[in-house]
Amino acid sequence: MVKLVLFDIDGTLIRSGGAGVQAFERTFTEIFGMKEATKRMKFAGRTDVSLVREAFRLFNVDPTEANFRKFFEHYPPCLEEMLKACKGGVCEGIIPLLDELKRTPEKPALGLLTGNIRRGAELKLRHYNLWHHFTTGAFADDHEDRNCIAGIAQKRGEETLGRKLSGEEIVVIGDTPLDIACGQSIGAKVLAVGTGEYGRAELVKAEPTWAVDHVGQIEVRTLLGADL
Length: 228
Fold this sequence. Notes:
The chain is of the alpha/beta class. The chain is 44% helix and 13% strand.
């Protein structure tokens, strides 16, 4: 039976209406003079740190610790402002799924597995009143590589539950091929959802355990591998 369910954020839990990309653009412009940096970048499934590194490379900015620190000090206030201005929302089926997971007799731990930095994740999920659902997680602050973030999320889930977890006891829910790959990197079951940039037909090609248009199309008993 599944003991840990890890959620991606953008395109899986919420759509921010472009707030994240706009906050990146504003930070690049105001702090580094890098205009229209985000137009040359693909955000889906990426980590914040890898995106900043790519932009620095494109604009010949030294990828120093100081420059990363400048970016990530300026980015959260921009994100908070953009979240208020942009029209987004919670993805289809997420609220009923979270509620049902919490009502199951043997509740799995709920966590985050995201390419957002922790502060960015918190701002986005607090804005849509979802942050309180999650007791553990791993973020781009922990590692630049998404697969390494998955390993950290598994370890923290084990610490939360007080026991080791096999891959079969973990479900990763995400909306991109990179989310599928990071779940597979720790041997987890993967639910791919077509609520982001990729449709279900495209996600199937990456061979997730399940692929649906939205999370409301899968029963919790199926997801958890138990007769509830």
